[in-house]
Amino acid sequence: MILTKENIANSIVLLCLATFVLWYAIDTHNASSSMENIILILPVAAITLCLCIYEFFTQKEIQAKEEKDDFLSVIPVVILFTIYVLTLEILGFDIGTIIFLGLFLFFHGEKRLPWILGYSLVYGFIIAYFFSAMLPYPMPMTILPTDY
């Protein structure tokens, strides 16, 4: 690994992220090691730590300056996310997630309507089903049943 300012900054961010994830996983396990409480946190923590280690050892020197998104290009996504969160109770988590994913893909340059619809429907329902099944409280849904 070549030591550049970017690699040092990236390594510090990775170290902070790994430290936080490790602390959170240990704290969760110490609070309650029952399977219901750690079924999601420990696998996600392990995957995140593995990704941090992988990224740390595969950092390369940045050859070309990365194209930065200017502030104005981020505003539509921030507004879209705000509308998504504020309308979840009205639209339901399932329909709201599908609409958010479709519009997010569109704002990021995807123009193929079948791809936007297919991706949004498949992953929107998968995400909604996963969270409604994993969370101990009911999620507002429009199409999917809320009691699993």
Order of helices and strands: HHHHHHH
What is the 3D shape? flat
Could you tell me the mean pLDDT? Answer: 82
Q: Got a strand count? A: 0
The fraction of residues assigned to DSSP E strands is under 5%
Quaternary state, please?
single chain
Structural class: mainly alpha
The main pleated sheet reads as: none
Between the first and last Cα atoms, what is the distance in angstroms? 48 Å
The proportion of residues forming helix, as a percent range, comes to over 70%
Radius of gyration: 19 Å
Q: Identify low-pLDDT runs.
A: 62-66
Helix count, DSSP H or I runs of 4 or more residues: 7
Give the total of domains: 2
Short key terms for the protein model shown above:
single chain, flat, mainly alpha, 148 residues
Blueprint (SSEs and pairs):
Layout: H1 5-31, H2 35-38, H3 41-57, H4 71-86, H5 88-91, H6 93-107, H7 113-134
Helix pairs in contact: 1-3, 4-6, 6-7
Summary, kept brief:
This protein is an all-alpha fold. It has helices at residues 5-31, 35-38, 41-57, 71-86, 88-91, 93-107, 113-134.
Characterize the structure shown.
This protein is mostly helical and 148 residues long. Helix content is 71%, strand content 0%. The protein has seven helices and no strands. Helix 6 packs antiparallel against helix 7. Mean pLDDT is 82; it is low at 62-66.
